[in-house]
Amino acid sequence: MEVLYSSTRDSGKKVTASQAILKGLADDGGLFVPDHIPALELSMRELAGRSYQDIAYEVMRLFLTDFTEEELKQCISRAYDSKFDTEVIAPITQAEDTYYLELFHGATIAFKDMALSILPHLMTTAAGKNHAENEIVILAATSGDTGKAALAGFADVKGTKIIVFYPKNGVSPIQEKQMVTQKGDNTFVVGIHGNFDDAQTGVKALFNDRELAQEMEQAGMQFSSANSINIGRLVPQVVYYVYSYAKLLEEEKIRDGEKINVVVPTGNFGNILAAFYAKNMGVPIGKLICASNENKVLYDFFVTGRYDRNREFVLTSSPSMDILISSNLERLIYRIAGDDAQKNKELMEALGRTGSYEITEQMKEQLADFYGNYADEKETSQQIRELYESTGYVLDTHTAVAGAVYQKYKTETKDDTATLIVSTASPFKFTRNVMNAIDGKYDAMSDFELVDELSKIGNVDVPPAIEEIRTAPVLHDTVCDKTEMKTTVKRFLGIVS
Q: What is the pLDDT of residue 1?
């Protein structure tokens, strides 16, 4: 059955999957959502033993129904290839009684690679299908990982340019070095004086700027998004959970039909929303455990039903989760409002106007599958140290937040269901925080000395993504105020008013 997409703020106008991917954000500022979540057509038993690529096709073809089999399989084969340092693409490692889905084996050693490896291929295919002649300008805000993964995916892709904004003092040194050393004649990286929410708000404003859209049209260009607001980012993430269940079943870690819990370190909500979609497709998932750091706006939402970003923004050791405006939550709000675009629009307008909104009791009842909690900096460090000391397995800071929250969940509920923790980044991206958590004696070392020491104590090779930036020259040094983002974009694109 064909799946069409509409805005979370106006369900009247339907577009195809390729049109939604190409556009990124709906004209009214809403996010594209499928008109229904399709059911898996193969059983988990039939999927067990299949490769990541095969399972990706079986999942994505159900959502991207206007792509031909040949088109979709070509996008998948180009995305999930030798750029990943493991043939299985997303290995599952067991440490103690928990399974860790390692999504950091791609070109930039973070989970964003998983979707951003395929998005450029989906987007250029979509452009061809819709006879789009304009050059596509990818505009992205990043809290650390999306930016580099998008830059790597779109670098030198014909017919595209990419502009990434990041908070100048809000990412790790390794994350920043990865971005500012990015090659590619079509790439542009900008640090802003502000936090991630400022960057994301600024990017959304540029998408909704009618005057700028007209100027770009005259210059033969149009914006699209590589952030997780693009449905072409969300759909590939659904694959993680179908694949993980099939893999655990294949390895006889679980019985067919047995439920698993999923723990996701969450900032922008896209990754855990993908798990929710997978559950609704028929994957036997029990609890969806949403793990926050000290920017615990999502935890408070799940406890109270009130979303309130009017609070102090905290810079933590898990910067990709330092977010107070979780854009993808809007897709869940739309769903629990009964696909009521008008109700969702009212709530999002309240968020824009007052910085908060509150859902109804009826909507709150539909969140029973979710559990939210958070870990502070001390608990995050403790989780890294204790797991390393007991197993030798080294977590990054984001995955450690998930691990610490999972411990709280188990203590509260006594639930011993088999559990998958989504490991979203390599510890090599956050060496200083990781190594200091293990032992304070490492504090005097330089960033790259820490890389070598982590390799030694963790008994793992230094990833190529780290090796290549040791001596790489800085190619991007633009910094601007958050109020200057539009001017900066126009200058890069050569648009003069």
A: 86
